[in-house]
Amino acid sequence: MIVVKWIFRYLKGTMDYGLWYPKGKDFTLTAFSDVDWVGCVDDRKSTSGGTFYLGANLVGWHGKK
């Protein structure tokens, strides 16, 4: 029950936050990823990463070694 109260308190405090998108723009979600298996010559670990675009705007990315 305590966690539920925390969530509602957070939501109440962030009511004015949000994202605004202009009408008529391209909202195609595009994702790119890349993997390099054992590409690091120092420790021979794999690396991977990716990006996510909504229209022409970067909305998320990730990278992992």
Your description of this structure?
- With 65 residues, this protein is of the alpha+beta class.
- Helices cover 18% and strands 37% of the residues.
- It has one helix spanning 2-13, and strands at 29-36, 47-54, 57-64.
- A three-stranded antiparallel beta sheet has the order 1-2-3, with no helix packed on it.
- A hairpin with a 2-residue loop joins strand 2 and strand 3.
- It is flat.
Q: What number is the mean pLDDT?
A: 85
How are the strands of the largest sheet arranged? 1-2-3
In terms of structural class, how would the helical and strand content be classed?
alpha+beta
Radius of gyration: 19 Å
Compile the SSE list and pairings:
Layout: H1 2-13, E1 29-36, E2 47-54, E3 57-64
Short description:
With 65 residues, the chain is of the alpha+beta class. It contains 1 helix and 3 strands; from the N terminus they run αβββ. The protein has a domain at 23-65.
